[in-house]
Amino acid sequence: MIDPKNIELSQSQVGPVDAVERVLGRFEVSEKTEKLLKSVALLLGIASALAIVLDLYPYTMFLSVPFCMIWVYCGWLRTEPQLKWINILFLGLYAYGIVRYFFVPV
């Protein structure tokens, strides 16, 4: 069986996330911790959806940031890297909205 940690990639196959993982190491969590993170992400997602439906601005952003961070962090997105990039994009947008909420007067 091939060990994925020992596969050498050419420079063209290495993206920025892969480069960070090479420096910091793979982010691996135990099965129990992964299950807990999935449950927390589910609760944050439901709470965020409720905040949107009930028009509870800015709570939508505050609930969505940790939701996105969990999805970016966890390894389930290794099989679907486009989802990781979408969540990184949303994380940036939510962070911008939060900074704007606190520092730009209305």
Share of β-strand residues? under 5%
Helix content range? 55-70%
Q: Got a strand count?
A: 0
Low-confidence stretches: none
Largest sheet: none
Straight-line distance between termini = 59 Å
Mean residue pLDDT: 76
Features of the shown structure:
0% strand, 106 residues, mainly alpha, globular, 4 helices
Account of the protein in words:
By secondary structure, this protein is mainly alpha-helical. The protein has a domain at 30-103. It is 66% helix and 0% strand. The protein has four helices and no strands. The chain has helices at residues 16-24, 31-53, 59-73, 81-103.
Strand-helix topology:
Elements: H1 16-24, H2 31-53, H3 59-73, H4 81-103
Structure in a nutshell:
With 106 residues, the protein is mostly helical.
